[in-house]
Amino acid sequence: MVGEGIESAVYPIAEALELAKGLGLDLVEISPTAEPPVCKVVDYKKFLYDQKKKQKELKAKAAKTVVKEIRFGPQTDDHDFNFKKNHAIKFLQEGCKVRANVFFRGRAIVFKEQGEILLLRFANELEEYGKPEQLPTLDGKKMIIVLTPKKK
Hints:
The protein is an alpha/beta fold. The protein folds into 2 domains: 2-61, Translation initiation factor 3 (IF-3), N-terminal domain (Ubiquitin-like (UB roll), Roll); 67-149, Translation Initiation Factor IF3. It is built from 4 helices and 8 strands, in the order βαββαβαβαβββ. It has helices spanning 13-23, 44-61, 78-94, 112-125, and strands spanning 2-3, 26-31, 38-42, 67-72, 97-103, 130-132, 137-139, 142-149. Strand 4, helix 3 (78-94) and strand 5 (97-103) form a beta-alpha-beta unit. 18% of the residues are buried.
């Protein structure tokens, strides 16, 4: 048994509960698998509050992946392509994933090859900033490629 104002030692369960009640606190089992099990004398509500707070901090520190989307048409011109490529470079340098897609409207689906070539060119030009997760895939009227930033 451990706790503030208590000598750390091995106590029988009845005595440990008596000590905790005497202090107006609760007896909480911290490590049940240890030999002998470790218990702590604390205010249980405060103990739960502190645990939730720690979990919230860990969750806040966890890396959040942000996905930015860039949209092309199958007939995208070089100037537009370079403009969007520069935005993608900025996103990848910030650590965001980039999802580039070519949207086919109406009969434009006939130009699937042009869309694939466009996305492969896009991935090739961004090779030093990020790497593609897979080859371009056609999903309904969209052809999609996802780029992940390279580790620094």
